[in-house]
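RETRY 2/3 - previous attempt timed out on the joint model. Re-submitting the same 993-residue input unchanged.
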Amino acid sequence: MTDTLSNLFLGFTVALSPDVLLFAVVGCIIGTLVGMLPGVGPLAGISLLLPVTFGLNPTTAIVLLAGIYYGAMYGGSTTSILMRIPGEAASVMTCIDGYAMTQRGRGGPALAIAAIGSFIAGTVSVVGLMLLAPPLAAVALRFGPPEYFALLTLGLLVLAFLTGGSMPKSLAMAALGLFLGTIGIDLMSGFFRFQYGLIELGDGIGIVPVAVGLFGISEILLTAGQETPPQVQKPKLRDLPPSREELRAAMGPVGRGTVLGFLIGIVPGSAHVISSFVSYALERRLSRHPERFGKGAVEGVAGPESANNAAACGSFVPMLSLGVPSGPIPAVMLAALMVHGIAPGPLLMQQQPELFWGFIASMYVGNLVLLILNLPLVGLFVNLLRIPYAYLYPAILVFCVLGVYSVNNSVIDVWIMTVMGALGYVLRKFDFEVAPIVLGLVLSPMLETALRQSLAMSSGSYAIFIDRPIAVGMLAVAAALFLVSFLPALKRGAGWRRTIGLET
Amino acid sequence: MTVPIGGRGPAGGLTRDRFAGLVLVALAAFIAWETRVLPLGTFREPGPGYMPLLTAVVLGVMGLVVALRGGGPALRDMSWSEGRHAAMLLAACAFAALALERIGYRLTVIALLVFFLGVLERKHPLAVAVVTLALAFGSFFLFSDLLRVPLPRSPWGF
Amino acid sequence: MSHFRKFMWAVAAASMLLVPAAAPAQDAYPSRPITMIVPFPPGGVADQSGRPVAAALEKILKQPVVVTNRPGAGGAVGMAAAANAKPDGYTILMALSSISIIPEADKLFGRQPAYQMSQLAPVALVTADPTVLVVSADSPWKTVEDFVEDAKKRPGEISFSSSGVYGTLHMAMEMFAHAADIKLRHVPFSGGGPALTALLGNHVQALASGPGPVIPHIKAGKLRALASWGEKRLDALPDVPTFKELGYKDVEFYIWSGVFVPAGTPEPVMKVLRDAMRQVVEDPEFKSAMEKLQTPVVYMDAPEFQKFWDRDAAMLAAAVQRVGRIEEKKQ
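RETRY 2/3 succeeded.
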């Protein structure tokens, strides 16, 4: 323990020297700018700027990259809250209540709470990462396809609490999302499903164009053509910081989101995307006023934002202690670290303690610099809303096109965004909620792959889900959740149908 | 839920939800038909066609429930006042998809903004020109030159 | 209408600006930025070797070399984009071994091929790493012989993970299984990282992997290497025999990365690129970057690389044909 502290102290003395700090600030600014483009998140930010760091010494390079990483993570929530444009799948839930808060004139507090929540989640998770990485990594390794399948099943059941609308409509949208997720080359057999001559669909439909289309574009389509343009907001200085009630309401969700996100994050694989969905559903379930969700509930911003950040941090656990990237973002970070001489793996902490602790310290510093930098910037960002809508929405559309295009440098993604914008517009006119589509799309490929991998492992025996303790435990929880959540709804549904049968 | 059970709209026509449900059922049928080329596999060894068919079934059943429950206003009473504007914006997005790799980022953005601000919003030409040029060149400079996001250029290198 | 006039004016002004920019195009290659297509997402193997190559090329050619990731369909999207690009030297491609697999898999499924291999011309091989057969350190197999013997006793029960069906790691294992005449159970994952995690977690029993990711685990005593697919033993694993030594003559496989241009690129441009690549592999910054990535640089100039590629492609094609369409075999 004293070793840990002295090592950390060593890391900090490096990370806090003036020139290193300057790089942290520069990294945070660049990251925030890059992250504000929809779709261009930490992934693109780090890989685009990686070659620039080749000439720097490892410490400054890593601090710069950590700054970009945190900045980009945070930049995405800005556009979600102010303009209802999710930068990535994890921001989808932030869009719902964050944007509703903006519409009520509470955009400033929403941004501030997202920043504070991210900071707390980030800092606490780095502590967790530092102290618990090796033992947690051992647990994480026990997650094979069957456990993964069980976890994702839990994620799917979260649907029941995700929206306040009609259950059959939500389930229909989830099914639509699950279907969209099956498009592309089948991982298990190599079959190209629903190709229609477009090889760009091979890796499936991207989540970013779908999320941007369904949320961002559809919002513009609904708003821009109204006879009376939306009121220009004039945020006042005293409306910028969150009120005491808002802060108090946010504390619980931040804490729960942090723990939840970190735990989901350490599981190898891309499951950490679901952490923000799970956190949102959890807060909505725990809330005494679930009807406030979707209309600007602070908890609906604080929970998912913290969960998202904690999960991203948790995903560094398998990366640092096993040297195995567990998703695209850790993969880029891994490459970036390796280029600068840090080879993550089981021996990292013993062999290169100064680099490991330098990295940990730079994560603390990146987090802190971001908070200090962004709280004042909230005022600046909120003032973007002073731009009359007639000028604002064309600019938003242009940035959506730019961002969605640059994820994969693919015009097919711009087409998908356009189609999804139209779909989202029509669906919202017909009173369907679009969040379940995104959840379905996120889960579908993982869920199907995990199921079929499990069956490949056991050559077709479903006993594999029962033989493995973690899997069977989670499936039991899922079954219990199913009974308490869906059954009443389905019963009510059956009642409806009976009545209809009687009438017609 | 104060919607009349049975969902018959006031004018006796289709209600909003009944229509939406039927569209979903049709979509599900289409998906199920399209999966016919994929090997289905078995319950113990699901093939590539298994999951799509399963989602189509769920979609169809849920669509049917939505249709049976009906609800919402009559389809013909729905307001589509912003529809024309929305269609124009979608057409502009489609144009962007077509133009981006043909005439490059900056020309596409100029065309888009001139259309939005000048044609749709009827702003003063000077304002249109200033905003358009500033945004097109400013964003390109920021993202392409400074942040090195690779953005498409036109065949003329622009 | 004034907006349209304005627009036309803007277009006219824009094209005026272009004239001076377009003029030097007649000058010696390269006179404007070069695009390097990496057909995989950031952080992947191709991206990891592509970015240092681009950074070094930039210094040598005195023109920006912009890395553009165009992932999709296991690399087919980016490779097709490069194959169909104008052969003027301003679009280059950083590709992996999978470049030879995709057209074969397309053929297998009767699909319109995304591109033909003849549409691309090799410039230089940058890296080539033999795959290594690894098993858990707790497993009973100490040698390839143990492994094969056990696999023969219980056909189809020992499982291995791979980076995806018809992926490079799958093909490597298939070559070995074919040569040893054994049947293994295949559990594909989406990428080399998840495949390795599955082995580390004991969810599968074997894996063919590039040496970089597994060497730390071998050193830490978590995994055991049984053999490598290389021509000679790996420097980092001097005790691990090659399949060739063990008598599996045709079991040779490398995960390689190389630079390609669209076929039909003029000879003078080719020469500039080939010379530049020769300097790239000598560039100290490039060398140190690749060293840290634990990826040994194996350089080959175009003619040599073409021969290497032809041989590799033929072997991979045969392996894809042997695997066949998986779903149909089951029925």
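The longest strand of chain C covers residues 120-130. Closing ticket.
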